[in-house]
TrEMBL record:
This is Putative MFS family arabinose efflux permease. Keywords: Cell membrane, Membrane, Transmembrane, Transmembrane helix, Transport. It comes from Chitinophaga polysaccharea. It is found in: Cell membrane. Gene3D superfamilies: MFS general substrate transporter like domains. The lineage of its organism: Bacteria, Pseudomonadati, Bacteroidota, Chitinophagia, Chitinophagales.
Length: 439
C-alpha cells in the first residue's frame, strides 16, 4: 500500500503488514495548520506559567515575607532570567541533536513543581527555587514552540508564525496576570492564585506527549533547499562556539538584533519587579495593578498577530527601530506620571506592549533569516540567551537604582537604554528582504 501526500519530501515507515507507507511532507502554514494550531495552544499554556508571577510574586516578597530590600525582592527575576538564558542556549543544541518533541516534554516535566512551590513555599528561598525551575522549563518549552513553528511554515510565512506564537504566549501571560490579580484581591496572595498553574502544567505535558509531533524533518527539508541565507551563510555544521560568536559578535546584523533583544527584555524584567511596588506606593489597588500588569503583555501578544505578517512585507528593521522608540515613550509616560497613577500605568503599559509587539517577531525572524536551517535552532538559542539575560540585567539594574535613588529612576534609565538601542539598530543594521531560495 502506498499513501502519498503532496509535497517535495518522502518519509517511509513500515506498518504491521510490512507494506511501505510513503508520506511526503511540505513546508507551509496552510499545509501544516493542525499541528501549528496545537503548538499555539501549547504556547498559551507556556505563557500562562509566566503570567502566574507577574502581579503577585513581588508583593509576596514585600508583604508576606517582609523583605525590605528591592534587590532581594527582585532576586526571583534574576534567577529566572539567568537560568532561562542558559537553558535557551542548551535547548538549541539539544533541538539540533535530538528532537524538538523530547526537549518540549522535558521542559514540562521540569515545570511540574513550580505552581506548588509558589503556592506553599514556606520561605523566599523556595520562591527562588520555583523560579530556577520555571526558567529551565520556559527555556525548553518556549524555545521548542518557536523552533517547531519555524520548521513547519518555512521561510515565506516566518514573521506570521512568530507573531502568532508570541501572541499566544504573551496574551496568556497578560490574561493570567489579570486573573491572578482578581483572585488575590478576593482570597489573598497565596495559595489560590497559583491553582491555575497546576492545570497549565498537567494539560501542557499531556498535549506534548500524546498530541504534538516532532518537526525536525521539516527543518531537514528546508536545509536541503537553501543554498545561501540573507547573511551569506552556506550549509555547514558548525559547533556551538562558532554559532555563539557569529550570533553575538561577528555578524553585525545579529549583534544588533541580540542587543535589541537584551534591552527589550530588560524592560520586561524592570516592569516585572518595579511596577507592582511602584503603583502600590502610588495608591493603586491589587485589581488596578492586575490591569496594569495584564495590559502590557496582552497588547504585546495580540499586536503580534498584525506585526508578525507585517515584518514579512516591510522588512525587519523598521519594526525593530520604531518598536524600541515606542517602548521608550511608554517609559516617559510612566516615569513622569503624566496622568493619574492608574492611567499613567495603563497608557504607558499600552505603549510598552505595542512597541514590544513590533520588535519581538521581527527580531526572531531576523535571526532566522540570517542563520542556515542546519544551525538555526542553535543560533536562535544564542539570540534567546542574550534576550533573556535581559530579565536579569533589568532586575539587577532596577534593584540597585531603586535602592539608591528610588523606583521611578529605574523606569527612567530603562527608557534611556531603550532609546539608545533603537538608535543603534537604525545606524548599524542592514536591512535585507528575506530571500532563501537564490542559488
Amino acid at each position: 500500500m502506498k499513501v502519498s501526500l503532496t509535497g517535495p519530501r518522502r518519509a517511509t515507515r513500515l506498518p504491521p503488514n510490512n507494506q511501505a507507507i510513503i508520506v511526503e511532507i511540505k513546508l507551509g502554514l496552510k499545509e501544516n495548520w493542525q499541528q501549528f494550531v496545537l503548538l499555539v495552544l501549547v504556547n498559551c499554556l507556556v505563557g500562562g506559567m509566566v503570567g502566574l508571577e507577574r502581579t503577585i510574586v513581588p508583593l509576596v516578597g514585600s508583604e508576606e515575607f517582609k523583605i525590605a530590600s528591592d534587590i532581594v525582592v527582585f532576586s526571583f527575576i534574576i534567577a529566572f532570567g539567568v537560568v532561562k538564558a542558559f537553558t535557551n542556549l542548551v535547548s538549541g543544541v539539544l533541538a539540533d541533536k535530538l528532537t524538538r518533541k523530547r526537549v518540549l516534554i522535558l521542559g514540562w516535566i521540569i515545570g511540574l513543581p513550580v505552581p506548588f512551590l509558589l503556592a506553599w513555599g514556606p520561605s523566599w528561598n523556595w520562591i527562588i527555587l520555583a523560579n530556577v525551575l520555571l526558567g529551565m522549563s520556559q527555556g525548553f518549552t518556549w524555545s521548542m514552540t518557536v523552533n517547531m513553528k519555524i520548521d513547519l511554515v518555512g521561510p515565506k510565512k516566518r514573521g506570521l508564525a512568530m507573531g502568532l506564537n508570541e501572541a499566544a504566549g504573551y496574551g496568556a501571560v497578560g490574561l493570567t496576570a489579570l486573573l491572578t490579580g482578581y483572585i488575590a484581591a478576593q482570597y489573598g496572595l497565596r495559595p489560590q492564585p497559583f491553582y491555575i498553574g497546576i492545570a497549565y502544567t498537567i494539560f501542557g505535558l499531556l498535549l506534548s506527549i500524546f498530541i504534538i509531533r516532532d518537526t525536525r524533518s521539516y527543518a531537514t527539508l528546508e536545509a536541503s533547499q537553501v543554498a545561501i541565507t540573507t547573511s551569506g551563510e552556506r550549509p555547514h555544521r558548525p559547533n556551538l562556539w562558532w554559532v555563539f560568536k557569529e550570533t553575538s559578535i561577528k555578524n553585525k546584523n545579529l549583534f544588533a538584533v541580540s542587543q535589541a533583544g537584551l534591552i527589550n527584555n530588560l524592560n520586561d524584567g524592570m516592569s516585572w519587579g518595579v511596577f507592582p511596588l511602584l503603583f502600590v506606593s502610588a495608591g493603586v489597588g491589587l485589581e488596578g495593578i492586575g490591569w496594569i500588569k495584564a495590559i502590557y503583555p496582552v497588547v504585546w501578544g495580540v499586536g503580534q498577530v498584525v506585526t508578525g505578517p507585517l515584518t514579512d512585507r516591510v522588512g525587519r528593521k523598521p519594526l525593530i527601530v520604531w518598536g524600541m522608540f515606542t517602548q521608550a515613550a511608554g517609559h516617559v509616560v510612566i516615569g513622569l506620571l503624566l496622568f493619574s497613577p492608574f492611567m499613567s500605568g495603563m497608557i504607558g503599559s499600552v505603549l510598552l506592549g505595542a512597541g514590544t509587539a513590533m520588535v519581538y517577531p521581527a527580531l526572531l525572524a531576523a535571526v532566522s533569516d540570517a542563520a542556515h536551517p542546519s544551525w538555526r535552532a542553535s543560533s536562535l538559542g544564542v539570540y534567546r540567551f542574550w534576550r533573556d539575560i535581559g530579565y536579569a540585567v533589568g532586575a539587577v539594574m532596577s534593584g540597585i537604582v531603586a535602592q539608591l535613588v528610588g523606583l521611578v529612576w529605574a523606569v527612567h534609565i530603562a527608557g534611556i537604554l531603550t532609546f539608545l538601542s533603537g538608535v543603534w539598530v537604525l545606524m548599524k543594521m542592514k536591512e535585507r528582504k528575506p530571500s532563501f531560495f537564490s542559488r
